Amino acid sequence: MFLVESLKTSLEGVSTAFVHFALIVGVAIYTVFGALSMQYLESPERIRSHMKREIPDRVERIFLGEELSEMDPNVHKCLEQTINAILARDNCAENLDLSKIDIEQIDNCYLKADIPPRNIEMVKKEKNKIEEEKPAEIENQEPPEKWSIGNSVIFAFTVITTIGYGHIAPETFEGRLFCIFYGLIGVPFTLLTIADLGMFLTKILRSVLTLSKKSADFLLSKFSKNTSARSTKSCEKDKKSIEKNEEKIEEEEEAEPEEKEESEPRKTEESVALGITFACYLLAGAKILSVYEPEMNFFNALYFNFVTLTTIGLGDFVPKSFDYLFITLVYIGIGLALTTMAIEIAADLLKKIHYAGRKMENVASAVVWFGGKKLVFGKILFFL
């Protein structure tokens, strides 16, 4: 019976660890898949074909007024008649307001111009020339190599984590369509993984706090001068009983569903410890990034870390050192989990404030005993 229980417990531990590991590996594989897909869909050859499809079907030729007058002499006569009519109407006034002149009459002279067929043929020749030269120009043109493997990985990772630097974006129809479905599947999957990693880090943080508290209590009890041998023995007994109770509580917490664990109120020391951990994580990451990122000093790296881990993602700073890209992505992933923990603690704090305000709503109508009489609390405040 003991062997069965121990085997069951060990399998539960292995299965939990396997789920954590499988989620992280799944996100990594999905990121690589997205990067390779975008690199193929946005390859230079496909961009060239996309540029060819954007060649205009029609070419417009804008003729100047002088050219229209040469093609059709009637344009010049029409302009003379129109201008004379305008001057006659306004009696050739010196203070004539040109802004109030009806320009539409002058435009009609150009619109009525009769363009000879030979000029229309000239426009068609220009269109055919563009259609012949443009594809050759596109073939010789080398599109900028934006979709390197490093940039593609960063793009894929920032899409599914909703950071979205925006330093590169798909240009082809296929790439944009793939990006929609890639994010539609990847965003929930990645957020689930980050939340799971955050819960795992929360357990580690609680274990560290419990261990440090036990160590502090042990040191205080050991070096205390005002404790007797009898009290020491009783403390040891109490400590053993406390440890047994804590072990039972931990086993019960592991057996309970995750929803109950999430609803437990956060302790003050957890909030303080998480705040210190997050601040140290930002500072340590800034120091590390400033070593191998060419465009980032310590402050720029700190700014980049904050903008990235809070998923603001302005995109003014982007990782450029692809040799250390794996370290950068792991750092961002753990940092996003810490941010999730901080948001959960802040939500619990706001929930407490919300319900505390509700409890204090009917204080004035509360009934209290005062001087041997039953009075309403509002009346007591009135007399005071």
From TrEMBL:
GO cellular component, one term: plasma membrane
Keywords: Ion channel, Ion transport, Membrane, Transmembrane, Transmembrane helix, Transport
Main location, first listed in the record: membrane
Bias (Acidic residues) ranges: 248-262
Organism encoding this protein: Caenorhabditis angaria
GO biological process: stabilization of membrane potential
InterPro entries: 2pore_dom_K_chnl, K_chnl_dom
Basic and acidic residues biased stretches: 234-247
GO MF terms held by the record: outward rectifier potassium channel activity; potassium ion leak channel activity
Residue intervals passing through the bilayer: 20-41, 149-168, 180-205, 324-350
Region feature Disordered, mapped onto this chain: 234-268
Membrane topology: Multi-pass membrane protein
Signal peptide: none
Location(s) in or outside the cell: Membrane
Protein name: Potassium channel domain-containing protein
Similarity comment text for this entry: Belongs to the two pore domain potassium channel (TC 1.A.1.8) family.
Pfam families given in the database record: Ion_trans_2
Domain Potassium channel: 141-203, 279-351
Tree of life domain: Eukaryota
